[in-house]
Amino acid sequence: MATTAPAIPGRAPDERLHQIWETKPGLLGILGTVDHKEIGRRYLVTSFLFLIAGGLEAVVMRLQLTRSDLRLLQPEQYNQLFTMHGVTMIFWYAAPVLSGFSNFLWPLLIGARDMAFPRLNAYSYWTFLLSGIFLYSSALVGQVPDGGWFAYVPLTRDAFSPGLNMDFYALGLVFLTISTTAGAINFIVTLFKLRAPGMSINRIPLFMWGTLTNSFSVLFALPALTVACVMLYLDRGVGTRFFDPGGGGHPLLWQHLFWIFGHPWVYIIVLPAMGIVSHALPTFCRRPLVGYTTVALATVTTGILGFGVWVHHMFATGLPPLATSFFSAASFAITIPSAIAVFAWIATIWTGRPVVRTPFLFMVGFIVLFVIGGVSGVATAAAAFDQQLTDTYFVVAHIHYVLIGINLFPVVAGIYYWFPKITGRMMSERLGRWNFWTMFLGFNLGFFPMHIAGLLGMPRRIYTYPAGLGWDTVNLITTIGSFVFAAGVLLLVINVIYSRRRGLPAGPNPWDAYSLEWATSSPPPPYNFAVIPTVGSRHPLWEERLDEGGRSILSEGPALDEKGEKETVESSPLDSRLTDVLRMPEDTYYPFLHALAVMLTFYGLLLRSHRVAGVGLLLVALLTAGWLWPARRELREEE
Amino acid sequence: MRSLRAAAALALTGCGASPTYLRGSGYVADRLATLGWGLLAIAAAVVVVIGLLVLAAVLRRRPPASTDRMSSAGGLSWIVIGGIVVPAVILLGSMVYSLRVLAATDRPEAKPALAIQVIGHRWWWEVRYPGSSPQETFTTANEIHVPVGLPVQLELTAADVIHSFWIPQLAGKTDLIPGQRNVAWIEADTAGRYWGHCGEYCGLQHANMMMAVVAEAPAEFSRWLEAQRRPAPTPSLPAALAGRAVFTRTACAMCHTVRGTEASGVLGPDLTHLASRRSIAAGALTNSHGNLAGWIANPQALKPGVLMPAVPLQPDELHALVSYLRDLR
Hints:
The structure holds 2 protein chains of 2 kinds.
Chain A: H1 13-21, H2 27-32, H3 36-65, H4 75-110, H5 118-136, H6 165-193, H7 206-237, H8 251-285, H9 292-305, H10 321-333, H11 335-351, H12 358-381, H13 383-389, H14 393-423, H15 429-455, H16 472-502, E1 567-571, E2 578-583, H17 590-606, H18 610-628, H19 632-638
Antiparallel strand pairs in A: 1-2
Chain B: H1 2-13, H2 27-59, H3 76-106, E1 114-121, E2 124-129, E3 138-141, E4 143-147, E5 152-158, E6 163-165, E7 174-176, E8 182-186, E9 192-197, E10 210-216, H4 218-229, H5 238-249, H6 252-255, E11 279-280, E12 285-286, H7 289-297, H8 299-302, H9 315-326
Parallel strand pairs in B: 1-5, 4-10
Antiparallel strand pairs in B: 1-2, 2-3, 5-8, 6-7, 9-10, 11-12
Helix pairs in contact in B: 2-3, 5-9, 7-9
């Protein structure tokens, strides 16, 4: 293997790489690209559009709840809004936005040229987008899901929910799990097989530990959701009675299946976000993170313990006290790894030299919100008191401190942090300050009073409430706060749009950061790195200044451009020794077409049309065969 | 509408205060309130301390940097003390305390004086008081009377979807699940009306699925029990008598029972002693002449999605019917 490519007259090696790796313009480029950076950008933009849709739904609900006895919305509309708000935010925003970051960054962080399965990666995106369109197409026929995001049976069985509403929910989620599962497999394999030489497992950025744990959790947790949704669909459409007590089934079966999936999912949508902070905070503190190993282990521990606490969503269902006590104790215990992470961040700030820029502000804000969401979570872990708290606004406050505090704030920090890498331009710092303070103050103004509403006895999921129960003032404040918060999100959107055109040029490493993604230009070229680097430490770009030791080689290495084909290196899973060179696939329409065929199948199932579903399945089979059909060149190589 | 519903809420709570469970009444709710205050105090303290630490970490003065050398050393003791030792102590203490409360509130110290069956419906509560004979057994709705100072056992199930029994100032939630019989118990220390709400989302009118627990002195409770056991009295006024005929002749009787008449429907609440209850439509409206008339004439306008159909009646029929219902004491 040549360390530097032999020069072809009149053509620099970079230019050749460019030609090999660039996404071709035109329709194939739009529908067929397998470039992880393009897919990552699309993930980010699409999930943000879902965030805005879910946010608008929330704002309309807040108008209805501003005062007692308002009649802006009919109960049916309100129930559809809170269901779609929850489903959109939890499934189509919170996890996909993190996949967006992971997709864009994964190969850049490990010095690779693409994901392990680039076509599967494109397929993840298309199934994510199309499943979201499938879900929202329920609005076109006026049969929007209305059973709440955890869709408890029997309310969601056909007897009490006869329309297509909950079929859209059940099938839409099964459709989405295809995307999430494919994504998780891709992250795991890429991480273990495609790292640059020398990047042993104890040198990967903490963001990757977050997403790695998340990916394993996805593989073990999602089947429970898929099974539950398939059973719900069968109960509704085919006449099975999995959840029907009259037919030997049981309604609590749904709750167990849903929360066996659902609680790990909470960690799925926060661990990578915590990873963003562990990854980016050191850059602004001008020192490595305190306790890398401890934080990595805490991340994995949280992921594992996350599978043992699901019953704390079911403390009121009449389970025996022994079971309740066990899951209560486990729910207390899971706080420890989070506390470890919090003190690792505080110690890093304390012992560092903080540079206060917008990403740093969002990360500090995140720590505070994390702690508030954490301690309110501890209150709900106490089973006896949770029987009061559950299904009140206290829980609504808690879930928003967790999901906005621990997911959205790090995501926004990540946007400010990596925007220069993604676009080549800096975001406006001045708008950024306004953005942070509007979001931070608006969020607390809007969501903190929800704790109080809950403690005053206000149940969640009520479309209106009578005067005289003392809930008017807190609800008015919440509505005002939610509008301030929404204005903050709007400022973010304005800053992104403005800075994309007018932002200052960023250069390769505007924050003077330490990790590999900053070793290449901004935005990175299609091939990411001109040569595959060799990594010698956790902080390859800080080695000159750091007392850690290790020597990375960034400017020399295999260029992998001799064959004129897409290639990247394969390495051993733990210590990352170079084992092989992999040939990567070209752009292709197959992932897009395959996802479309799956969508057709799901519409067939929705409408209970054997013909449509059959045609869809046939197309899926043909396209799968086409996708996997060996190219002529591969066959020649076999010979 | 606004003032009517506010009045209904007042009728349920008995006063204008919030139904906060941080101020309970009775054995269970007292302990839960104390546990709640304890957990919230710890939570507040943790937030304040960590918040100050974060602020100090960002703002604290640092000596000017002499070189651009960086060090990865230091800080691990933060993790050991702040991230492991201190939280472990706090969490262990909270856990032991809360598990003790769970054990202590799981069942009453004394044998329950009374067992009541509560069946959740969309969107109202069926309440059965089993007696030693069929004559002593009766059914009512949305208003549960209990003797003050005595533990009362509740047997909970649901007829359609999952609901949850919740009287914040008496006890935490216990779900009513179709096909399952859950047992809970309450005990009120002071006489009064306690507001309750369905604690699990149950469809269109979950918002208007309220109830009241009325705790009264044992003698008063016995009188109530006696009165409820009796069938409905024969109306004395002619208008009410005509109303009874309307009731038994029209669709009303298909869904509602009035003991002592041939009306024996079981789909809706038992109305035998409707006039003794302070609110109608599961707490959505106060029980008044005007509200009853409006409710019967157009239930969908007052509680959209409710399963009670509007029964077409002439104005004089409606008037007579309401007179009858007002007479069901």
